[in-house]
Amino acid sequence: MSPRATEPIINEDEHPTLIPSLSQGNVLELPPDSDKSTAAADGEHRGCLNTVFDPIKGVVPSGGMASNVFNLESATLGAGIVMLPSGFLNSGIIIATLMLVYICFTTVYSIRILVITRDKTGFRSYEEMACGLLGRGADYFTAFLMFVFCFGTCVGYVISVGDLLSPLLNQPSTTGFLRTSMGKNVIVGVVWLVAMLPLSLPKEINSLRYASAVGVFFIVFFVICMIVHAAMNGLKDGIGSDIRLVGDGWGILNGFTLFVFAFICQVNCFEVYEEMKGPTPRRMTRDSSVAMSMVGLLYFLSGIFGYLDFGNDLEGSVLKLYKPQDDVMMAIGYVGIAIKICGGFAICIQPSRDAIYYVLGWGKTSDVDSWKNLVVSGVLATLALVLGLVLPSIEVVFNFLGSFCGGFLAFILPALYYMYAGNFSLKEVGWFNYAVTYQLLIVGVFAVVFGTALTIYDEVKK
C-alpha cells in the first residue's frame, strides 16, 4: 500500500522528520476541532489535589519510565477485573492463561504501531488518523466507537455498584423492601445521585485523575484480598474436582472478549506518549511492556484465585459472591472498588460527551456553553443509570464492549492505521511486523463478527 499524506524519514529511536509528499497534489484538511482526542485528557493536571500529590510527582517525575508505566496501568485497570474469574470459568485455566499472554502481547504491539503511525503522520488521535488515513467520514465512525465504549463502560460501572451492594442487601437482617430488586435499584440510584452524577457535570475533571490513580492501588489491594480469601475458603480443602483446564468453543470466545475489554488502553497511549520525555517508539514499547506485564499478572491472579475460590458458582461479577460484612479486609477492598467505580464513571462521561460535541461540530468541551454541557452530561449520566438498572448482568455489557468496540479499537484500527500510514510492505517492515499486523486485522474482524453475534445470541437465548 502506498503512503497517503506524507513520505516520512523515521528512525524509531529519534523524532521523525516529516517531509510533505511532492507526489500529492493537495493536503487533506482535518475537521477544525480534531486536534484533540475525545479519549485523551488535557496534558496539564490542575486541581485541589495537586498539593497532596506534589511529593509523589517529585518521586515519580512526569514523563519518566515509572510515570508512563503507572499511567498505562491506570488507564487499563478498572471494573473489568471483577469479571476475570468468569473468564477463567468459561475458558478453562490453561486457555485463559494463554489468551492473557496473547492479548498482553497484542496490546503492546498495537500501542507500538500506533505511536509509529503518530510519528509518521503527525496525527495525534484515533479520530485524526481515521480522517487523515482512511478518509473523511471514518472519523465519525471512530467517534461513535469511542462513545459506545466509554458510555458502555459507564453502564458497567452502574451495574458494578449494584453488585457491590448485593451481598450487603441480601442479609436476613436487611428490611424486606431493600432485599428486593426495586429496593436495590433505589440504593443504586441514591449512590448515583450523591457520588456519581455530581462528579460527571463539571467541564474539567482533571483532579479526578489523581483519584483514579489512587484507585489503581485499591485494585491491587482487592486482588490481594481475593488471594487471601481463596486461601482461607475455597482452597482450604484443596482444588475442587470441577475446575476446568480447557473450556468449550463458545466459552473460550466469551472469555476472549472479556479479556480484550479488560486490556483496552490503546486510546490513551497518545496522551502518555506526548508526556514522555524524549518519546520514541522503542521507549514506548519498553514502558508498555512493563505496564501490561504487571496488569497481566494482576489479571491472572484475580482470575485464577477467584475461579479456584468459587468454581462453578461464578456467574458474572465476582463481587456478588463475597461477604464483606463478615470480613474486614474484604470490606476495605469493597470501599476501594467503590471509589474506583465512582471516579471512573465521571472520567468516562467526559470522552462520551466529547464524542457528541465532535459529531455536532460544537468544538471542544471548553468551547461549549456551560448550560449545554450540564444538559448533555446529565442526560448521559441518567441514561447510563437507566441502562445499568435494566441490563441484567455486567457480563453482557463487557462482552459486547470487548467484542465490538475492542475488536475495532484494539485490533482493526491500529492495523489499518499502520498499513495506510505508508511504506507498508514485506520488504519495508519485515516479515514479523507484516505478519503480526495482518493477524491483528484478522483477529479483530473475528472478534467483531463472532464475539458480537455470540453476545447477542446468549442474551436472546436467556
Automatic annotation (TrEMBL):
GO process annotations (BP): amino acid transmembrane transport; amino acid transport; lysine transport
Membrane topology summary: Multi-pass membrane protein
PANTHER family: ACID TRANSPORTER, PUTATIVE-RELATED, AMINO ACID TRANSPORTER
Name the UniProt record assigns to this protein: Amino acid transporter, putative
Origin species: Trypanosoma brucei brucei (strain 927/4 GUTat10.1)
Superkingdom field: Eukaryota
Transmembrane regions listed in the UniProt entry: 93-117, 138-162, 182-201, 213-232, 252-270, 290-308, 328-349, 370-391, 397-419, 431-457
Keywords on record: Membrane, Transmembrane, Transmembrane helix
Coiled coil: none
